[in-house]
Amino acid sequence: MKKLSDKRWFLLTELLILTVTAFSCFILGIRLFNKPNNTLNAMYNAGIDVMGSFICVMLFFGCTGDRKSEIEDSTRWFIMLIGLTSFSFFINEWECYVFGMAKYRTWCLVMNGLTKIIDFALVYYFYRYVRTVLEFKGKTASRFDRIVAILLIPAVLLIIVNMFVPICFSVDADGVFQKEKCYWLVDLYLICVAPPTTVFVLKSNASAKQKTVAISFILIPIVHYLFTKGAHGYATQYGSVLVAIVLIYSVLFSDRSVKLASTKTELYTATKIQKSMLPHVFPPFPDRKEFNIYASMDPAKEVGGDFYDFFLIDDDHLCVVIADVSGKGVPAALFMMASNIVIQGVASTGVSPEEILTTANKKIYSHNPYDMFITVWLGILEISTGKLTASNAGHEYPAIMRARGNFELLRDRHGMVIGAMDDSSYTGYMLQLEPGDKVFVYTDGVPEATDKNSAMFGTERMLEALNKEPDADPEKILKNVQDSVDGFVRNAEQFDDLTMLCLEYKG
């Protein structure tokens, strides 16, 4: 079953449920005006059909209110239950309208056939929901999955054949529904599925309330059937099904709220830990007047895979790092923090940038079971002379501004990304910085920021933003770029982490 990630799927489902509800109301109106002899009981049950349709609409929007969040498999199956129940109310309205009308005899037969097929589908979707929520495992559960799916085929075929040969039920010349001797066959699918499903539920490790609502979906319709003695016509069996669905909804989203609150707390903690590992106090070295540095990171999710770092190796050498881990979210953030520690540890030994990347690559590659990788730009500034040595592991080109000039891309030589190959080696290069020169490094979240039409921000716009006020301090330069990106993407969802760092050498 495909995940409900396509917005068009959402739209079609909404239109279907709303249309079915509207037609239920329309059919109710026809019944009230065209059948003046409606009994109070018939009108009451018709009202339940319409009210049930509206409840299904509210449940559907309750399940799908947050379109940006990924929907769990259990919720997808539950949405199918809601949609099918809404459709069942509509069919029940039609069935009740054509009941007892000779000119609509064929329609009555078709509507009753659809009702039985919907019953089968409700049983199947409920089983899939319970199977997903309670996580039945083992060979027995897998075999039963196949049995439940296979038995659905003869059950549906039985109803189709019954349209032409009255095996289970028929409609007489007056348009009145009649049970045949083999009517019990229409309940055979439920009889086959319900007992094993009940056993699975009771033996599962689910909470008591989850077991209760799961069993309620089986028991409530059965109890209703016993109380009504299987009466056909203006029945309210789908109302009893809806009661069970509402119970499931209350437990499903109660549990989800608890889980969501726990997840948000954990993500908040992870975000705080990640931010605490990156330099976040500016100016970072208030006693050092030879340089000025500023950096920022804006993750696409609560936590990100980008990172920047800068630290003094000794009194005369400043190490600057910016990196981008493959992937997003918590896995990328964990890999990012581990990689940052490795790179910082190697850099503290005082070796060259290319040696730092070569050694870090070996360490990260040997502990990388999920084949993640990192792009890195690393530079070491000799503060007393302005000599900047750097090395690039598959990262974006840095932008360099000479004093009283403009920012331009420095198309440096790229090495292999960190973590991809064990024997990767890297080359370094040297830049001589003069007082007033600036170096701007960034992750691909800047040039690849996209608007609602999927157009990219690009390096040309980035350079325009940098050169808006090239003589400004690093903090202002980063703000100009951020404002330009925000103005470009507007309300489009942020696609990637956006990280920037600017270093100004003052001499």
Output the keywords.
single chain; 507 residues; alpha+beta; Phosphatase 2c, domain 1; 2 domains; five-stranded antiparallel β-sheet; 12 helices; 12 strands; 14% strand; disordered N terminus
Quick synopsis:
The chain has 507 residues and is α+β, with helices and mostly antiparallel strands.
Which spans have pLDDT < 50 for at least 5 consecutive residues?
Answer: 1-6
Structural class: alpha+beta
The succession of helices and strands, N to C, reads: HHHHHEEHHHEEEHHEEEEEEHHE
Q: Enumerate how many helices there are, as a single number.
A: 12
The rounded distance between the terminal residues' Cα atoms is 63 Å
User: What oligomerization state is this entry in?
Assistant: single chain
Over all CA atoms, what is the radius of gyration? 33 Å
The total count of strands amounts to: 12
Q: Helix amount, in percent?
A: 40-55%
Describe this structure in words.
The protein has 2 domains: 7-266; 278-505, PPM-type phosphatase domain (Phosphatase 2c, domain 1, 4-Layer Sandwich), CATH 3.60.40. The protein has 12 helices and 12 strands. It has helices spanning 7-34, 40-63, 73-98, 105-133, 139-162, 188-203, 208-228, 237-277, 329-347, 353-366, 458-466, 474-489, and strands at 169-171, 177-179, 291-298, 306-314, 317-325, 374-382, 387-393, 399-401, 407-409, 428-432, 438-442, 498-505. Strands 3-12-11-8-9 form a 5-stranded antiparallel β-sheet, with helices on one face. It has a 5-stranded antiparallel β-sheet with strand order 4-5-6-7-10, with helices on one face. Strand 8 and strand 9 form a beta hairpin. Helix 1 runs parallel beside helix 3, helix 6 runs antiparallel to helix 7 (208-228) and helix 7 packs antiparallel against helix 8 (237-277). It is elongated.
